[in-house]
Write a structure and sequence with these properties.
This protein is mainly α. 72% of the residues lie in helices and 0% in strands.
């Protein structure tokens, strides 16, 4: 039985958010104020959320082409451009965009974490660790870079170290049951089945999504089988 019976939760990209508003409303705002940056930025975010990525990218590029009216920090524009490129699978382009954002906002923990995630996707582990660690130093209360470090070390096969970062994530964001899931995966892959068993049950005690619970139940069965083999 394969150990990875469900996908490990990928660390979320940190991006800007706009209020839930219909695309037609944001488009109307762009049409009424075509020379202002903010309407294009908001419309771009709405398009990105809707999965219309090429159109979103064009809106963000339009923001950059307009005179700076002070309404949109350049850091945020490059953050969004990077998110679009990442979702298109263009990781080099996403890294370039986020690094450009860092020029305008050095030590922005969200941008650093995003770069680490893209580097992880490319299996550039040492660079990914460096950026995630810098993000943690820039904001040691932000849980996302800690989770990213856990994912990097899990990918490198350093399961004990991965588990420690995932445990730290739980400390920073105890309300998120995925922390327990990630710890369980790392511990199970490292052969620490008894501890993994405890964390899977913690996950099941909090997670309500039936699909996630099904995956956790499969992992629990695998752990039980593995512990029985060790006893015999």
């Amino acid at each position: 039985m394969a150990l990875f019976i469900a996908s490990l939760t990928t660390a979320a990209l940190l991006r800007n958010r706009i209020y839930e508003t219909g695309l037609s409303v944001w488009k109307s705002m762009v049409e009424s104020s075509p020379d202002k940056r903010r309407p294009h930025e908001n419309y771009g975010q709405a398009l990105s959320t809707a999965g219309r990525l090429q159109e979103a990218l064009q809106e963000f590029k339009t923001v950059l082409s307009l005179p700076d009216d002070g309404s949109v920090p350049l850091r945020d524009v490059y953050r969004e451009i990077g998110v679009v490129y990442f979702r298109l699978g263009l990781f080099d382009e996403s890294i370039t965009a986020w690094k450009t954002g860092l020029v305008h906002a050095p030590l922005d923990a969200g941008l650093l974490n995003n770069i680490a995630i893209a580097l992880l996707k490319q299996q550039r582990y040492d660079e990914a660790v460096s950026h995630a660690e810098t993000a943690v130093r820039a904001n040691n209360t932000m849980p996302e870079p800690v989770n990213t470090l856990g994912e990097i070390y899990l990918a490198k096969g350093e399961f004990a170290r991965a588990a420690e970062f995932f445990k730290r994530y739980i400390y920073l964001r105890p309300e998120d049951p995925r922390g327990s899931w990630n710890v369980a995966i790392a511990l199970a892959r490292g052969g620490r089945y008894e501890e993994a068993y405890q964390h899977v049950n913690r996950f099941l005690a909090s997670e309500l999504d039936p699909r996630e619970r099904a995956g956790a139940t499969d992992l629990l069965n695998f752990i039980n089988e593995s512990m029985n083999k060790k006893r015999h």
